[in-house]
Amino acid sequence: MPIISSRILRVMMFFLFIIALIFLCIYIYLYSHKDDGIIRNHYSNYMDIPENDGVHTWLPDFFPSTAKNISIYTNIEGNYFYSYFYLIGDDDVEFRKSLAIMATQRIKDMLSKNDNSIKNVWCKYGEISGEGSRKNLYFIGEINAGHYYITHIRTTGSKDCVSR
């Protein structure tokens, strides 16, 4: 009789282990696929962004129309965005010339939390489509030659910008 009960106990323990393992897998799957509220869009060039797409309401008027390989991440609830893009040749040179005001180390550190490959950070004011003539402060990070990062941080101001 004790042999039967120990076998039953082992079988029950095995099934409990399997059930616990299944619940653990379900929990890990659900946790890793939770919605972070970020909308991700990728475009091979600026002209590929549909005119009626809400992406244009995030980008400043100075965003280069010659940009390539554009990735845009937006969070409507958090009211923020960031974007990566590339510029090639003369387009890169002209864009760099337009970046005259450096951001403070505080801003560079803040942006580096999102992407630690950012080397330099500039400030630039721009308008957003549909917001009239209101100027917004943007931060442009250089990752490497021709590769940029841009964002708008609403809690900052001109105190975070310094002339070269």
From TrEMBL:
It comes from the Bacteria. The keyword Transmembrane helix applies. The chain crosses the membrane at residues 12-31. InterPro entries: YbbD_head. Residues 39-85 form the YbbD head domain. Keywords: Membrane, Transmembrane, Transmembrane helix. This is YbbD head domain-containing protein. It comes from Salmonella enterica subsp. houtenae serovar 1,40:z4,z32:-.
